Amino acid sequence: MQIDALWCASIAALLAPFTSLLVAHRTKTGNPPTPLTEQLVAAIYRRAGGYGLAALPFLTITTGYVYVSSLDARSWAASKPKRDAAAQRLRQSAEEFSVIVADSASAAAASAKRSWAEGAPARAEAAAQLRRTASETVVAMERGAQQLARAAQAARDARRRARSSQVPPRPSVAGRPAGAAKTAAVLRLRQRKGGNRRGGGEARGADYALNLLAYVGTFEGIASARSVCRGWYRILAADARAQDLRRFVARHGSVTPKARRALWLESCRLSPCNVVDAGLRDAYADAARRGQEGEWCEAIDTDVPRTPLVLLAGIERSTLASVLRAVAFRRPDVGYCQGMDYVAAIVLRALREGGDSEDDAPPRAFAMLACLLARDGMLRGLYTPGFPEVRRRSYALSTLLAATRPELSAHLERIGACVEVAAFAPWLQTAFGYHAGEAWPYELVARAWDVFLVERHWKVFARLALYVVIVLPDGGPLEEVMPLMQRLEHVKLGADADADASRFVLERALDLKVTRAMLDALGDEFEALTAPAAPASPPPSQPSSPPPPRRVSKPPLHAIPAAPQYSVPPRSNPPPRTDAPARRDVRRPSRARASGPPSPPPFTDL
Amino acid sequence: MLLKVVILGDSGVGKTALLNQFVNNRFSTSYKATIGADFLTKEAFCGANARSVAIDETLVTLQIWDTAGQERFQSLGVGFYRGADVCILVYDITQPKSFENLDTWRIEFLTQASPSDTQNFPFVVIANKLDRENDRRVATQRAQTWCAKNSTSILPFFETSAKAATEVEAAFRKAAQLALSQGTMQADFIPETISFRGSPANGDSKSSCC
Question: Name one GO biological process term (chain B) (predicted).
Fold first, then answer.
């Protein structure tokens, strides 16, 4: 306190001359000068001199600084306990914090250790599973290789025998377990002589490549192989076996939705590129608009709301109706027929699932359907008035059924099951879409379509239809047989069956020995049968025309070649006739061939 | 005893719904369009005579064939029209076209089934969707006139609703009874059965015998 007063006094003393100077100055400027103040000022100036004045501010600042620092030092000293306390608190909290961190870290480490220890059995299990599947795969591969070797040996033997006996062997895959079909197909692929065989080494290379691709079994695999290497591209582009390979993959390989879309579009000569051609888009819009006035609209509006929801799977009914109207407009001679909604839904769904947007799918579906219903389209005759193709195909199927299982065929006819109308017609006219999502999963129907479109022939549907009928039990009244055929209850998989089940049914159907030549020959036979009965007659819908000859009851015996060729399938070893009591009352029909193959046992394991 | 019944009519008039209501006592709004033909059976007790009591009722199995309604499918019909004992013609009271097509269906059936007695082949006419009375566009009178002029005897006529199960049972029972009486008449020539055909059995008889 004393120091403070001292300092204040000294500062006041130092500032006094200034103050007086300032006072003097103010009086000089503001008031008339007085001689006294002038003298005083002059005296001060004189006495202080230049140095004194100049030192004044410096002194002031210095003293001020010293004073302030002394103040600081005092307050600093005074705050020491506070600071010490704060530091103490800080230290304490830091210690606490470090304790907490250490605790939580140790807890986390412990829990991690615990969970790792807990997961040990699961990991061991998974590892064992992996090891198991790997070993199973190895075993399966070894088995497959053995099968291949055996089949190759058998083929060699058969060839040798054939050479020695001069009878061409007829390779057949029927009757073998489902997996054998794939093996046999690989073998066929290997045996088939390519269109342009190159030199020995390269041919071997091509064989190797094709076998490898066949093993891969996906269209993606083929496509990527094609794009990766020029050699592969050449093999796939030039080799006549490439088409076989495509067919093989469609039948036995796997087709993803994306590959399916490309495959289907390609088979209808449409570009699978991502952007829909503007011309096609316009054509579709135009056809859909102008199709709204057709006579078919009423039927479409009746049917589209009834198309099963399970088949549509998210496709708008308005989209389906619009596509159908456009197709009907584009193909006015076909128009709209019940059943086309199923086909359109199948196509739309495949396109949508393959990645087409909501705007792209309808024009493409329109183009695909227009292609399938064109003059030589594969589905056209199923819908044109009179259903020429339905009758033709039903006849072929009935004849094949009669040749394969004469007792069953006769039984069905006797009890009045109109197999053609009640079974074959709906199956063919909806391309098995009638049962998609109910008895059969959509996947199976889509797979059948893959084969159908790659082969460009209805053979696969014929095989499926035949398969469904062939596995019917032998006897039974109409009330029991019809639900089986209508709802496929004896071969039912359910809407969400897995891919393996679908594959199983398809493989069994493909095992049936039905060839394109057979079906075409039977179709021609039907034409020949009906042509003289109604020479240049109007379509049979006319009431006045005589009814066409019963297709099943009067197959021309002379026109059917020897039984073994048409029997489906030509099973070499007769199965045990465990179901004999069921057909105790079946009289063998006259047209049953004497050497008719025994009927296979019903596949009750389905 | 087996009776074969065929149901005909335009697409979407409710043939499948009627059939399911009769056989399974169920109605669903989501029937698929029938493609080709469908088939259901039901066993029922039925007498041949409209006025008979339960004594001479027999157990009959009705084999009912449901058909695709689109006109094009008529060409496939020949297989299962044959051997039919009775035919049920269905139209939709909200669709005049379906009523006008009854003629076509009847003639088509008679042509393709070619029964022995074309004039007296039993038909039953059903006007379906009575639950949509507000949308009615075919008057009952018109249908009754049609029924009267198309046969030597008046065709039985029922207005039904498959949705509300109105008169469905009665219509099918009438059909079964007609088929039975026709069958007995043709098989045994029992004169009593003629009494039914001679009786003023108009369409509204509820066939209470069954």
Answer: regulation of immune system process
In a domain, B59, yes or no: yes
Tell me which residue range forms the domain holding B95: 2-182
The answer to whether B164 touches B21, Cβ cutoff 8 Å, is no
In sequence order, what are the residues at sequence separation of 6 or more whose Cβ sits closer than 8 angstroms to the Cβ of residue A291?
A297, A325, A326, A327, A328, A329, A330
Number of domains in chain B: 1
How far A338 CA sits from the closest chain B CA (Å)? 7
Model confidence at A341: pLDDT above 70: yes
Nearest chain A alpha carbon to B107: A543
Q: Is the pLDDT of residue A132 over 60?
A: yes
Beta carbons of A386 and B68 less than 8 Å apart: no
**B202 found inside a domain:** no
Q: Which residues pair with B63 in a beta bridge?
A: B4, B41
- Angle of helix A257-267 relative to helix A361-372, nearest 10 degrees, comes to 50
CA trace torsion A143, A144, A150, A154 (10° rounding): 150
| Residue B91: CATH number of its domain | 3.40.50.300
Cα A364 from Cα A235, distance rounded (Å):
31
Contact between residue A17 and residue A54 where contact means Cβ atoms under 8 Å apart: no
Mutate to test the interface with B, among A338, A414, A537 (most CBs of B within 10 A): A338
Residues of A within 8 A of B33 (CB-CB) are: 302-303, 306-307, 338, 341
Burial of residue A563, with CB atoms counted within 10 A of its CB: 0-12 exposed, 13-18 middle, 19 or more buried = middle
Query: Does the CB of A334 have a partner CB in chain B at under 8 Å?
Result: no
Size of interface A-B (CB pairs under 8 A): 95
Would the CB atoms of B70 and A540 count as touching at under 8 Å? no
For the stretch B142-171, pLDDT in tens is 999 999 988 777 889 999 999 999 999 999
pTM, entire model? 0.65
Domain assignment of residue B204, yes or no: no
On whether the CB atoms of residues A349 and A313 are closer than 8 A, the answer is: yes
What's the rounded Cα separation, in Å, for the pair A547 and A266? Answer: 41
Query: What are the chain A neighbours of B30 within 8 Å (beta carbons)?
Result: 306, 308-309
Contacts of A478 in chain B (CB under 8 A): 39, 41, 63
Contact B96, B13 (CB under 8 A): no
Chain B contact present for A398, CB below 8 A: no
- Is residue A481 scored above 60 in pLDDT? yes
Please state the ipTM of this predicted complex.
0.83
What lies within 8 Å, CB to CB, of A37 at 6+ separation is: A23, A24, A27, A28
- Residue B46 domain-assigned? yes
User: Which residues share a beta bridge with B87?
Assistant: B6, B123
> Residue A332, Cβ neighbours under 10 Å: how many?
11
Q: Does A479 touch chain B (CB under 8 A)?
A: yes
Cα–Cα distance for residue pair A428/A382, rounded to 1 Å: 8
